[in-house]
Amino acid sequence: MEALSADIHRTPNCHTQVYKQRVKMQGCLPKVVVGRFCHGTCTSFYIPRLRAHRFKASFQTCAACVPKDMETITVTLDCPLMNPPQQTQDIVMVKKCECRAVKILV
C-alpha cells in the first residue's frame, strides 16, 4: 500500500458562520436577527475490501460539521393589527459547531 497523501491528515475546519435570518409571522412585521450556522470541512474516507464482487468497505468514516451547542431564543414581533399587538416566536440559535461522525449507507 502506498503512503497516504498529506491531505488525509488535514485538521478539520468546522466553525460557526454569521448570517441574517428574517423571522416572520402572518399579521406581524418581520424582524431580522443575527444567527449562526455550521460551516466547514471534516475528514472522511472509505477503504474498499479487496473482493471486487461485493461493494463493502473494510473501513469507512464520515464526519459532518454539525451543531455542538445550541440555544432557543424568543423573538418578539410587532403585530399592529392583532390583539395582543405583539407575538413571540421561538427560534434555534447555533452557538458552537464540531465535526461529528455520522452513519452512512453505501
TrEMBL record:
It is found in: Secreted. One of its GO terms (biological process) is sequestering of BMP from receptor via BMP binding. Transmembrane segments: none annotated. Residues 16-104 form the CTCK domain. It comes from the Eukaryota. InterPro entries: Cys_knot_C, Cystine-knot_cytokine, DAN_dom. GO terms for cellular component: extracellular space. Pfam families: DAN. One of its GO terms (molecular function) is receptor ligand activity. Keywords: Disulfide bond, Secreted, Signal. This is CTCK domain-containing protein.
